[in-house]
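go over this:
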Amino acid sequence: MALSNYEIMRNQMRSEFIKYDQTMMIQKYSLKNDSEYLYLDFVLRHYRINRKNGIAEWSDDCFRNYVEADYNESMTIYDVLCYGKNTSGLSGKYCSLNMLKGTVKSSTPGNNMFQRAADYFNGKVKELEAVCELMGERVDLKGDVAIKLYPFSFLPVILQYWEADDEFPANLKFMFDENILKYMHYETIFLYDRTSYKENTRYCKGLLW
């Protein structure tokens, strides 16, 4: 079966990953490691990256069984580990994607990017809040749900959610530390968001079943 373009790109990044200084990655992010793998948690899952071939895998049972990370997961992990400039650059100030430092101010890209997700969670506020609290902590901001998430332990994101009413559709909003671009490229933020949303949805379904 032929590989998709996404799989080809992911596989190419494996080769790039192993060119980088892994000792620096370990020190920068305090990664657990052994002679074969680097380990980190990402959105409530345990991941390992093979130090020789760059393959990223996740597991729910301490790697007795494991699954290769998909495109979004792999590319986010590779970018953070390889590109991240430092771990002391968080500002503690959060803003929407179009207001990040180093970007041209414009209307928010993809206003409807998470509309499907917002619609899915409509009527499921308690479940969404319960799932989000597994990954973070409540914050005093507007919204039916407002949580500071930690998809990576060192890189929080704020999620705000409003249920639909008579005037407005449901709305899902992410806000990022102003300096997130010190940790990943702009394009990777979308992969980061999608992975967070996917796992929130998976856990939310588990609470509903």
